[in-house]
Design goal:
The chain has 504 residues and is of the alpha/beta class. 21% of the residues lie in helices and 27% in strands. The protein contains twelve helices and 28 strands. Helix 9 runs parallel beside helix 11. The protein binds beta-D-galactopyranose (GAL). The site of beta-D-galactopyranose has 10 residues, from loops.
């Protein structure tokens, strides 16, 4: 037990593990364990698809009680599908998974109503690994890898296509230079995507969701066909194809209207937001316009469920610290704008084997981030209730990368039903401290060492607006580490983090 009135543990990650890339996440047990958010939003009467995230040795057998008649369960894969109930209401499901090692239960509340994405979306996006080099095949393989790697068992669900799936006017490559649209104005995929409906059906058959990308401008950022003046056709076609998420990227829209007012900046998003709501499916709208005109203040009214708050993370200059830190610092101060169904998006998680946004032709390489930096990255994104989209190579997922992406307690912080983004408790040259209120009166705290030396970083109960004795749990190690009644603090390695959950 720690000394009387405070908890102060002096643990230096580097020394404890004596390795450069210590795996902190305990391996999942063979017995089933259901993960995932405790709330899920769907609009009344819309197609419904939910894969129960569950670790444990397969085969597993799933059961669900409280299921409305419009939904059915695939008991082998744990996939719920059908149509959401017709009327707004709350439906409480009890999920159960069994195998020969035991069973797991979890409550899941379906909130049938107008708000979707009650917790931040989780998935994979191709941009930072494959750039222009995408095809139908690649996304099928990514969906396979999301299941085979176990990522889907922790709640990752979107397999998202970014730019470059449409035609590219003027391209010398015949596979890219087909017609932009058909006779009815419907956007045409390029020759590398022969069957969009088949692709989303493939992804959906695994219980996963499919994401797509367009621009309100005539051309996308990579100069492929955009949606300008075809917004209604495109919204309809994306829905008909079966997409569940649209990233709508400003790109060339500035050539149409450069007026720097909120009204002008909102216009294309208001239009697409409205069109998506009219489709017969729930489509998450991700606004990508790099934070212009304080997008966080109006994006929810435009129909957006998430919005990029900054420029591209992959192009952010490193300072003394890698670029993701400065993106996080900009995003972290916007906590008051986040909540269920409305999330600040600081861009993707760039770890593992990943391409170089400044030199997109160079082959993907292992990230140069240290272990401490990668733990810090994932901790910040979880605490900031950010969408968790991995954008590294799904074909090269190593145990260390999966340990960063797939820690159920870290993800629980991100997916917490209260939907609060952490507030900044402290930011100095050397320290960054975030605190995220969680459902049930708990709080998650991230203590980040920004300095070049091991450093003691702590937060007092006054900093955290807490009183009384609290149990302290190390979230990465999934271990209770003591109690404290006045502060929590650790000696932390250079650019490293300790992330804890404090409970009564
Ligand atoms: C950028 C966007 C990136 C990526 C890229 C595609 O504008 O911020 O996330 O989508 O365009 O060309």
């Amino acid at each position: 037990m720690p000394p009387r009135s405070f908890l102060f543990l002096f643990i230096c990650l580097g020394v404890c593990f004596g390795e450069d890339f210590p795996i902190l996440t305990p391996p999942p047990s063979k017995a089933p364990r259901i993960h995932g958010a405790l709330v899920y939003g769907s609009r009344p009467g819309k197609p419904f698809l939910y894969r129960i995230p569950c670790t444990g040795e397969r085969p597993l057998t799933f059961r669900v009680s409280g299921l409305p008649p419009s939904l059915t369960l695939d008991p082998v894969n744990g996939i719920l599908s059908g149509k959401a109930p017709d009327q707004p209401r709350s439906v409480v499901l009890r999920l159960e998974a069994r195998n020969r090692h035991g069973k797991s239960e979890r409550r899941l509340e379906l909130r049938i109503g107008d708000t979707i994405s009650l917790t931040p979306p989780m998935g994979w996006n191709h941009w930072y690994t494959h750039y222009h080099g995408v095809s139908d095949q690649l996304f099928r393989q990514a969906a396979d890898a999301m299941v085979a790697s176990g990522m889907a068992d922790f709640g990752y669900s979107y397999v998202s296509i970014d730019d470059c799936w449409m035609s590219k006017p003027g391209s010398p490559d015949p596979s890219l230079n087909g017609p932009a649209r058909d006779a009815n104005g419907a956007i045409a995929p390029n020759g590398r995507f022969p069957d969009m409906k088949g692709l989303t059906a493939y992804i959906h058959a695994k219980g996963l969701k499919a994401g797509i990308y367009s621009s309100p401008g005539p051309l996308t950022c990579a100069k492929y066909t955009g949606s300008y003046q075809h917004e209604a056709e495109d919204a309809r076609v994306f829905a008909e194809w079966g997409f569940d998420l649209l990233k709508y990227d400003w790109c060339s829209y500035g050539t149409i209207d450069r007026t720097p007012t909120v009204a002008a900046r909102r216009k294309p998003y208001d239009l697409m937001g409205e069109l998506l709501k009219r489709q017969d499916r729930d489509i998450h709208l991700n606004l990508c316009q790099y934070g212009m005109s304080d997008v966080w203040k109006w994006a929810p009214e435009s129909g957006g469920q998430s919005w990029r708050t900054t420029g591209d993370l992959g192009l952010e200059k490193d300072t003394r610290l890698p670029g993701f830190y400065s993106i996080a610092f900009k995003n972290a101060v916007l906590s008051e704008y986040a909540g269920p169904g409305k999330w600040n998006d600081p861009d993707y998680i760039l770890i593992g084997v990943i391409g170089n946004a400044r030199d997109i032709k160079s082959p993907p390489k292992r990230t140069a981030l240290t272990a401490g930096e990668q733990y810090s990255y994932m901790s910040m994104w979880s605490l900031m209730a950010s969408p968790l989209f991995f954008s590294g190579d799904m074909g090269h997922l190593d145990p260390f990368t999966l340990n960063i992406l797939c820690n159920s307690e870290v993800i629980d912080v991100n997916q917490d039903a209260l939907g609060k983004q952490a507030r900044v408790v402290r930011r100095t040259e050397d320290e960054f401290v975030l605190a995220k209120p969680l459902a049930g009166g708990l709080v998650a705290v991230g203590l980040f060492n920004l300095s070049e030396q091991p450093r003691k970083v702590s937060a007092s109960w006054a900093d955290l607006h807490l009183t009384g004795r609290k149990r302290v749990r190390d979230v990465w190690r999934q271990k209770d580490i003591g109690t404290g009644d006045s502060e929590v603090g650790f000696t932390i390695e250079r650019h490293g983090v300790r992330m804890v959950r404090l409970a009564r």
